[in-house]
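Work Package 3 (structural annotation) set out to generate three-dimensional models for the target panel prioritized at the project kickoff. During this period the team completed the workflow that converts sequence records into discrete structure tokens, so that structures can be stored uniformly alongside our sequence database. As a representative example, we reproduce one entry of 332 residues exactly as it appears in the project archive.
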Amino acid sequence: MGFGLSKLQLMVKAIENQDASELRTVIKDLSSIEIRNLCKSYVPSDEYLCTILHYVAWQDNPDLLAPLLDYVDELEMRDGHGWTPLMTAVNRGSKQNVRMLLARGAQIDCDWVGGMSLVADAMNFGDVELITILMDHGARVAPTPDMLDDSQNENAFYLLHYAVDDGYYDIAKLLIEKGKIPMNTLDQSGWSPMHLAAGHNNIDILTLLIEKGADINVKDSDGNTPLAWARELDATEAVNELQARGGIADKIWHGEKPELKTLEEREQEAIAEDNDDQDAEEKKLEAKINGIEHDRFEIEVEDAKLKPPKYPNGKDFKMADGLQRQRSDETY
């Protein structure tokens, strides 16, 4: 027991120091079974129940991951986030580790939605290459009818909407050309990618969508066309482009006016929310120091196991209005 713990601590230290040579030294006299078991062991005192394999996958250092993969017999084990090592590597944006794990047989559908959540996570980095790697290994970019009926993870179903909303032209182009993603789909808010491109006054993406076959007069769930959105949101260039291409719109607006925020605005809001959370924790700690235990008066209304995991790269998918995603910061 002591031997195993000592080796575990030495492995953690080598990983933290990014010392692949030392890691190999630590494991060189161990049997295959011992190394395999250590890879499944939790990092000491880690609140997220991170295993050694998850911890190595997070490091974005293939020299650390490579010597352990020769002994691992379970690539689908999950940490406290509910992540597999592949999910961890994707959320780190580690293309090399993602390639290595996939080459060893890691399952692309470990997210239960055909890899769509992995693609969504990769989009946090705006990384076309990482998304391409996932798609080349079978990651879906659009749900099947069964997924829409059965899955609770609807955040991953609107990948083209996400790309358009964040202004990722190259990703939108990849999803359309390589992924053959439907372009007229309405999201949970009843909006299509065309509405978002028009509302954001993003002419490049708007033109891309139109030239790839999107319906220029697709209606949102209230009956408004992209031209109506452009007018309502004072997107002058989009108005001119849509009118020149035959866009039409009713004279009156239907429903509530959409409120679109840029990626930068959402990130600033997330930072402000994180600061508020930190202030609340500091006040709570100060109250405890002063002998006031607020916890005893609080009523637990959520099961921690049911809460969505925080994403270590600082961006957490939550559908507030179908598109405007909030982010939160957590790290291993």
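The first helix runs from residue 2 to 16.
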